[in-house]
Specification:
This protein is mostly helical. The longest helix is centred in the last third of the chain and has 31 residues. Helix 1 runs antiparallel to helix 2, helix 2 runs antiparallel to helix 4 and helix 4 runs antiparallel to helix 5. It is built from five helices and no strands. The protein is elongated and about 45 Å long. It binds heme C. The site of heme C has 19 residues, from helix 1, helix 4 and helix 5.
Length: 111
């Protein structure tokens, strides 16, 4: 997740400079970030329980938004890039709003 934050900053920077190649290169790193290690995954699935479907759906939205972002950057269409980036941020936010707090509390014991 920390890397995701960094990639988002790289993309913001790319948009400011109209460096679409940078955006195109970075977006897939968000869409196809590595799966957590299997142990961690099992713990996450156990914790999520019946909400896992929703969690996965949010994850899918992020993947799709990242894909759309890469496509817009490939076309060099700045406006579409910005719209896609906004959709991407919304997809991060949707999941965070619902899952981040309980998740952090459960796994790290802090808020
Ligand atoms: C499917 C759910 C989900 C999606 C989608 C998601 N996140 Fe997260 N994110 C979480 C959860 C749960 C946490 C809290 C647990 C943790 O910190 O590992 C978190 C934490 C974070 C953190 C804090 C990490 C830290 O070390 O404090 C960052 C940064 C972050 N996410 C970035 C992103 C970005 C950027 C995106 C979109 C590109 C994104 N996330 C999409 C679930 C999600």
């Amino acid at each position: 997740m920390k890397d995701l934050g960094k990639h988002m900053q790289t993309i913001t920077d790319g948009i400011s400079r109209e460096d679409w190649a940078l955006v195109e290169k970075t977006a897939p790193l968000i869409g196809e970030h590595p799966q957590p290690p299997i142990m961690e995954k099992t713990r996450i699935i156990g914790f999520m329980g019946s909400k896992m479907g929703k969690f996965k759906a949010y994850d899918g939205e992020t993947h799709e938004a990242a894909h759309a972002l890469a496509q817009a950057a490939k076309n060099g269409d700045g406006r579409a890039v910005i719209n896609a980036f906004q959709a991407l941020q919304t997809s991060c936010y949707n999941c965070h709003q619902e899952f981040r707090k309980p998740f952090v509390k459960h796994f790290y014991g802090t808020q």
